[in-house]
Fold this sequence. Notes:
The chain has 197 residues and is an all-alpha fold.
Amino acid sequence: MTEFFICFIAIFIAVDPIGVLPLFMSLTAGAGSARLKRIVFQSITTALAVSLIFLFTGKFILKYLGVSVGDFMIAGGVLLFIFSISDLLAVDKRELATDPESVGAVPIGVPLVAGPALFTTMIILVGQHGYLLTVTATVVNLVITGAVFILSRRIYKFLGHNGSKTVSKIANLLLAAIAVMMVRKGILSVLTEMHLG
């Protein structure tokens, strides 16, 4: 249960559904209830499909390239740290040009929901906790993200623009701390491999 909670929290922070809420609201402004549900379904199914494809092929690609889990943990931790710091220092998430017909798939599904932070986190978690916990935590988080999007009008009204930004900043601070932990564990893993080798 503790391992699942660790996976769940790490992926929740990487997806950051509250943080992307203001941008989701602007991308779906004027959409009726039925269209909003279609957009949410499209975004979540796209994010899930892309995430699972990357998850099950990513490790083979790393193995082919000769990259160890420790190497990826260090690189992934550095990347996550950069993502989290850039979001912490940013005034707002960037606006994106969109196609009304595919807005659910791109940019909401990819890269807003399933982006580099999620991909990196998933690969690292698989190395530490295995596929079952990582996939389960990812699916649960994407279902929660879908629910947040469906309830976006109510949540945004409750939190307000500043409230949603504050929640996002706190989440990114936690992600930065997780990134530092990943780098530390990655260095220890590489040193252990060198010692055994």
